[in-house]
């Protein structure tokens, strides 16, 4: 009698226990529905000597502690750079087991690679790592309106809009605009540059008919065949007097079709098709770059783009750990794609281990 072992998916988290972590519960539920087993664990739960995991499984309405074999694949939604010991454990585990999520590098690395590979260079907002106030000043003189943001940042934190008005300099941050005289402005910029490395970009005038800044998040994932699919495209609209559209920074969203109809009228369907096609083309291109740079493949991307008055697409950022799209049913869509891709990686590894004979 043949014994069929289900794929065991590990969910790696920095938190010791999964209690009250909704995403872990959703992963456990979807894994079961899709015919896989699931275990939640943290780096400290890994026993390399016995190749076991001291983790948690969800049974009969609660999380139960258990000891398990190593999983066939690991879903790793977060990094562990704050703890050297955890980093070492994760790195060692990566050498033994396929991980779903792999980094693409910080914002400037992505931009430089896209420029080098040329295919998407025309969509890149001119971006420079600001080295000094003089550097900043030269960019402001050239473009008149600038966006300055931390190179290593997320959710719109620390993003400022800067422009010159006569003899004053206006800096907008968190819905607040402050006017500076030159000396005050210079000191403020210099203090900001001391905090961390920053990226400078000319401001792309992507605004609704009512004058609010907006962008689009293109959320793409790999499916059960390791092919890119567009999970969701949605607009993000900034509050009045703000340029940051990120939802965690006060921005809001609305239904895509309604938004496109309001802003683009009869061209709404064409714009929608262009956005979806662009999301898949760029995702495949980023995978190509990863491969040729000797990096592991990608599984999920959040691509932030703007449209100028001519409907030209401009790439603001490419994120490899995007948040869940803001709609309840989409959370399960995202997780289902993640589970399917994890199972693909597990089968691929098992087939390779078996010399491509038979199936897992």
In short:
By secondary structure, this protein is an alpha+beta fold. It has helices at about 20-35, 85-95, 105-115, 135-145, 180-195, 255-265, 270-290, 330-355, and strands at about 10, 35-40, 45, 50-60, 60-70, 75, 130, 145-150, 160-165, 170-175, 175-180, 200, 215-220, 230-235, 300-305, 315-320.
Keywords:
360 residues, alpha+beta, six-stranded antiparallel beta sheet, four-stranded antiparallel beta sheet, 34% helix, 27% strand
Q: What can you tell me about this protein's structure?
A:
This protein is an alpha+beta fold. Helices cover 34% and strands 27% of the residues. It contains 8 helices and 16 strands. The chain has helices spanning 22-33, 84-96, 107-117, 133-143, 182-195, 256-264, 268-292, 328-353, and strands at residues 8-12, 37-41, 46-47, 52-59, 62-69, 73-75, 128-130, 145-150, 160-165, 168-173, 176-180, 198-202, 214-222, 228-237, 300-307, 313-319. A 6-stranded antiparallel sheet has the order 7-12-8-9-10-11, covered by helices on one side. Helix 1 (22-33) crosses helix 8 (328-353) and helix 6 (256-264) packs across helix 7. The radius of gyration is 23 Å and the shape is globular. The two termini are 16 Å apart. The mean pLDDT is 89.
């Amino acid at each position: 009698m043949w014994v069929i072992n289900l794929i065991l998916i590990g969910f790696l988290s920095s938190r010791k226990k999964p209690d009250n972590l909704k995403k872990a519960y959703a992963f456990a539920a979807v894994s079961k529905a899709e015919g896989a087993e699931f275990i939640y664990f943290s780096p400290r739960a890994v026993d390399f000597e016995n190749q076991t995991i001291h983790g948690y499984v969800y049974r009969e309405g609660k999380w139960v502690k258990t000891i398990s074999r190593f999983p066939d694949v690991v879903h790793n939604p977060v990094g562990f750079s704050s703890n050297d010991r955890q980093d070492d454990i994760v790195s060692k585990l990566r050498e033994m087991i396929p991980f779903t999520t792999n980094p693409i590098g910080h914002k400037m690395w992505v931009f430089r690679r896209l420029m080098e590979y040329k295919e998407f260079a025309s969509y890149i907002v001119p971006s420079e790592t600001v080295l000094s106030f003089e550097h900043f000043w030269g960019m402001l003189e050239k473009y008149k309106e600038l966006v300055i943001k931390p190179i290593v940042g997320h959710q719109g934190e620390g993003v400022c809009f800067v422009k010159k008005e006569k003899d004053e300099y206006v800096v907008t941050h968190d819905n607040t605009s402050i006017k500076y005289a030159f000396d005050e402005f210079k000191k403020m910029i210099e203090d900001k540059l001391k905090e961390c490395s920053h990226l400078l970009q000319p401001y792309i005038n992507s605004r609704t008919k009512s004058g609010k800044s907006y962008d689009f998040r293109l959320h793409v994932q790999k499916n059960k065949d390791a092919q890119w699919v567009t999970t969701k495209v949605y607009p993000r609209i900034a509050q009045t007097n703000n340029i940051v559209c990120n939802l965690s920074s006060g921005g809001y969203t609305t239904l895509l079709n309604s938004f496109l109809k309001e802003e683009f009228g009869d061209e709404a369907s064409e714009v929608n098709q262009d956005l979806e096609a662009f999301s898949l083309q760029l995702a495949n291109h980023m995978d190509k770059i990863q491969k040729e740079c000797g990096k592991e493949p990608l599984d999920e991307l959040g691509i932030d783009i703007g449209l100028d008055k001519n409907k030209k697409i401009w790439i603001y950022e490419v994120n490899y750990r995007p948040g869940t799209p803001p709609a309840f049913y989409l959370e399960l869509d995202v997780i289902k794609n993640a589970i399917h891709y994890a199972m693909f990686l597990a089968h691929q590894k098992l087939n390779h281990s078996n010399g491509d004979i038979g199936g897992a």
